Queue: 2 jobs
Job 1
Amino acid sequence: MSSASRSTALLRAPVLLTMILFMVLPMGVAVVYSFLTNGAYGGVKLPFTTAAYLKLLVQEDLDGKLGFSPAYLIILWRSVLLAGLTVIISIIIGLPLAWYIACAAPAKRGRLLLLVTLPFWINTLIRTYCWVLILRDEGLVNQSLRRMGLIDGHIQFLYNDVAILLGMVYTYLPFMVLPIFAVLERLNGDIIEASHDLYADRWTTFRRMVWPIAMPGTIAGSLLVFAPALGSFLAPDLLGGGKRLMIGSLIQLQFSSSRNWPFGSALATVVSIGILLALFLVVRKNFDKVLGR
Amino acid sequence: MSQVDVVVDTSGKAAVGGKVLLGVDKVSKHFGTGASKVTALEDAMFDILDNEFFTLLGPSGCGKTTIIRIIAGFEAPSEGRIMLDGRDIGHEPPFKRPVNTMFQSYALFPHLNVRQNIAYGLEMLRWKPADIKRRVDEVLDLVQMPAFADRRTNQMSGGQQQRIALARALAPRPRLLLLDEPLSALDLKLRKAMQTELKRLQRETKLTFVMVTHDQEEALALSDRIAVINKGSVLQVATPEEIYARPRTRFVADFIGEANLLSGSSLGLAPDVTVSIRPEQITVGMAPAADRREVKARVVALTFLGADTLLEATFRDAHIRARVRGALSGVTVGDEVSLSWALASEWILKS
Amino acid sequence: MSNKPFDWRATPGLGGFSLIVFLFLYAPLLVIVIYSFNVGRQATVWEGFSFDWYARVFSNRDMGVALRNSLIVAAASMALSTTLAVTAALSMRRGASGAGGKLTLGLILLPLVVPEIVVAVATLVFFSGIGLKLGLGNLIIAHTVFCVPFAFLPIQARLADMGSAVEDAGRDLYSDEWQVFRRVTLPLLMPAILSGAMLAFASSLDDFLISMLLADAGQTTLPVYIYGMLRLGVSPEVNAVSTLLLGSSVLIVLVALRLQRMSKAK
């Protein structure tokens, strides 16, 4: 080994070790745990079994008979749906915003980027909580409506899927804007002018030039939004009232009050596989586009 | 309306009834306001004729690019009008103007292949698919790249990309084709080849080409008429021969080709007059004659360039350069030589 | 035809849209800040200006413990993750070369794509499985892992910008690689390192989910404590401490970004 590659390997070793030991390995352990049996006081014990995974599909009813129960699948499905909707709404809001920032004068651009990025660094708990303040029965919106004489009691804004969706879009929007902006910033402005020069108006230019060229950024942003949205805990917990479960809150339950570590691990594994699958499909189809970074 | 004396006097086109296609009517362009106001263009006024190769020539920052951007529609004039078919199109968006641009950076659409690039304008104009296909093939033949139809644009050399950019701008048969420094990114050999190409294309398509360049040789070689621009002002609009032989200002004389600019007082003429004489019009050591002017100058440099010899000499604080054919014998640095030229070759400039 | 000059950079209506989006992003946070100064008990009925709730926050002993825990964990994870990030970035100076390079890059960025809940669960079962009971140490290890990408990115970006010219010049002066690093590379890299460190600190401070799942009694961090308060109901104290947390995160990040911009200007 040349001294250069030796020093490279040496420099890489600590971080590789850390990530493998404390991230990859634990995820492996979680997979193993998903095949173990639930311990009496939490934790796990032998023997190995697929009971945790079966629990996703099958439930024991009052007669002790096993029957197909879609309850957990519904939760899984709803999580995917809500995460997907979060992605779509983030694109609808984020793409025009990224375009606006990319078109701004260089000085303004920096400030706008800062404004978009800043919320990302604020605690997710706080960012979700503020919507509770605004949307709850005695919250800002209801109070204002009452004061304006438009309603008498209150409107139930919280504890439904729309509130969860709102919270998630609010939290994950910067994740969509930044990758799209990164791509659009490198776009040669002459290309837009060329499109207009060749008789395309603004909307057509957006459709035929901006949208396709931004695609690698849109894809990257979609992944960066979908993954955390899928496993989101705080939004369904605080805004959904803990009754509208998503995978994230369901998993958390298994490690607190419901005490079913194998089941929790199984759910986590299913989520990981789902995301890895999505990642794989996307990267395979757009390998050079995504790496165009 | 336009600088009539120049256009009609010297432009062969106008003399044979060349039709005015586009009129630049007292166009000015300012950026910023108040103390930080920058004037890019001041009262530009000239016509562009149908089926001509028109060049905007000038140094960097002179305003030539501003003019074609205004014609294309990417900038709006602060004052003045752009007249096409009797209508002021100065404030119309670019997609409403029958003008196409070949960009300096080529600006090929990266996510489309060559065929789709060229077809783009035609699709926007709602041509029928069959017509589009035919025209794309036609235009690819025109720029001599028929095999490239399905290539992706990022796998081509600079020269190839440029031809595609040209093809794309030609395809919709615009009334005017604007070329923004089309050859500046090419190496010398390719440049020369492309110059011939451009001239040929203009003749074949009979479209009006408006080219922007800072290279005066290129302008002289390709153009039917040239507009010389400096610091936001259009100094002269005329044929290459006219501009070379009878430049209207010091700047034009100096910018186009080489010129010796001698002050009137050094030649015994009125002090506010400048005499312009081209180096190749000067002879060394010829016998004096009535119709020639002679000066005695001291040789400071002799450079043999193969086909010519460049002789530099000083005369009354002025620096004169003469260019003679072949080698120059019997003259060395330090000698006093007789330099003369026909009085008729002198061109008088008022300051 | 409208007489407004055509500017493809200025899409009509987009400015207004963007303004609305920014208001959407920031106004809700403002609500918390404003109501943290509310006199009344009711979290969202304005009754007057007061610092009372802040006083309550500062005299809350349990919260003080949580804050202390948060700071310890954040400081430790910052130090560890930044060190790891520096070594990793140095190893990838010429781009992520070779199979090892891409793998390392992927692993470093992995925490960004894996949902927090999965990371939290995995870490929990792993620590439980191997019986690791280091108290706050458990948290520190877990935080370090997800802080690495945040520390890494600014450092890597700076190294990429720097190029090798300066270091090559340094090699002429100093015979030994370590000296080159210490005297040439490190000083130039310092702003980016500080920037990465601060971003790592902010990420650790803000973490909720992993801390909640891993924490035993006595290892509560501030966000977990706040969550506990929220579970009992909305209160102005929550508003006050949230405002403080919010403010510090913003401050830290602004400084970090300013450092980044300073190093870019060089």
Job 2
Amino acid sequence: MSAFRMIRLGSIAPISLVLALYPSFAHAQAAAEVAPAAEPAQAPADAAPAATPAPAEAPLVAAPVATQAPEKAATPDNAKADADADAAAAAAAEEAISRPSTEEVDQFKLNLYGFTDFTYSTQLGHSFDLGSPYSSFAVGKLNLYAAAELGDNWRSLAEVRFMYLPNGTTPASSDPTVIPPRTNTSVGDYTDLNRPVRWGGISIERAWLEHTFHPAFTVRAGAFLTPYGIWNVDHGSPVIIGARRPFIIGESLFPEHQTGFEIYGAWNFGPSQVGYHLTLSNGRGPIDTYQDLDHNKAVGGRLFFKHETAKLGTLTLGTSGYKGTYTDSTDAYSADASGKLVVTHPISAQYKELSLAADLKWELGGALVQSEVIMNDVAYPDDHRPPMYPVAGGPPGFAPDHRRVGVYGLAGYRFPFLGIMPFFGAEYYDVGLYAFTPPSAALWGGLNVRPTARVVLKAQYTYSWFSAWQGPDYGHYNGIDLQAAWSF
Amino acid sequence: MKTRRSFLSVCVALSCLVAASGITTPVGAGEAKTRLAIVVSKDSPVSDISIFELKRLYLGERINASGKRLLPLNLTPASRERSAFDKTVLSMSPDAIARYWIDRKIRGDSGPPKAIEPLDLMQRVVARLDGAIGYAPVNEIRPELKVIRIDGKAPGDSGYPLEF
């Protein structure tokens, strides 16, 4: 009950005094003049007597007092309505800002929800040698959210993804000529006479706690999705327009997740809004979710500007950046001359990286246009430059510093009927000297249908190819994806 | 001729009365336009809000007014006033609203404003809950509430945006 405050019921604003007290008499008069012609039945009862005592506070804007519902005498019905209002106010407070109280602790609510997708993929003509020639059904993402308002502007969110992986994956190998065996997670199930069962893994997508001091200043701590662009945060299958995100979004030109702190907020200026995100994290690393292997914390940020008008819709422009150091090291134990145990941390891999991105999103009615351009620069210290194996064989060389750049654009229009949205898009990705693959490009399009808010049906055709390729011809990808994504 | 002139005079007088009323505008036989007022408790220091702030508030963003966080309260989607509010303030259809909140939750953002039905109960909650803000047709506002202006306009002013 501490989340709300009881006010005295029973004061009715008398027309005459309200009008006399209110400085902007003209407005009040205009409001009072509107005789409730459309509500004749209420008019007699609504007419407040001029002799009614003055209210404790006059309304700033004179409400059309002549049309206000009168305060009724205390009756069982009124008492019940008041009790209902008390309960609803408590519930609203709990769901919104809620302040610590015994009731709140006792009635704490955890909000569980999530999303899943099921996809059928097939390659048409099997003309792309690097892709699977077989069509497949797959349950892709099965993500579960646990969100909670913790009171006094504290909020928490955890999102986990349940996976079939690592079953069936092939571990990375330092020797490209040796293909390691497939990971097999089959184990005997003691609940079923030790018959084999394949276990899967859980990926912690995010787990954070945040406190909002002001709409322009919220501090978030934990594991979070890197706030860059549009679709790294909007990563759920029902939100993505196509059957999958554009290729470059999944290429980790920015780290997808970070562990550390995020500060964000926004200011409103009429139809415009300016917002920011700042991040401080472990950066990328082999175990960045729980340990930094160097002293260089990664920093990043995003700045966005949003403007909306009735005629031109909503336009959002954003720019993002990230700077960090990837380091891998292991603990090495040795003894010094005196026999004392010495632990060192020799670096086995390291590079510095800088990522920059810009994004644009325009929405007007059912129309949507969005685009992101992302780049990532990697620079290796010479003593930790990794080997690079030529595809054609021969001795390995050293990986050069490189820049990867990608861009995509998407346009679509959602019709009111069944929420049908035809969409099309294009993307381009240049891996630079990162790998032996040339720049690639893709065109895609299809239908996104939302028969209900929670169910999304998608059909997408994708055509992609390597451009400026002077090596072997791997053909082009020509495929169709059919997907059902739903939230629950 | 005299009868005709008298009839015209009556028509002009009636038109003036209707135009002067401002809040309720006949648009057809048995059909009238209603204005929604934005209401807060009488003790609230909030007296004005911009239409953009109102939209952002009801789309889940935190808005402070007079140093205090505003808590938006909604009616349930089935109500006529809610539909009108969504259309005039949010410029969104019921389906678009539903999609918006699903997408927002998947993004990890907070959920929609608390929806309370009926209108009378929602107003009582607004009156009791510190920082709460709601809406109601101007002819159904409870006396313990205060109507606030939208971009400086009161419900009786011409150009008031919340009309359906």
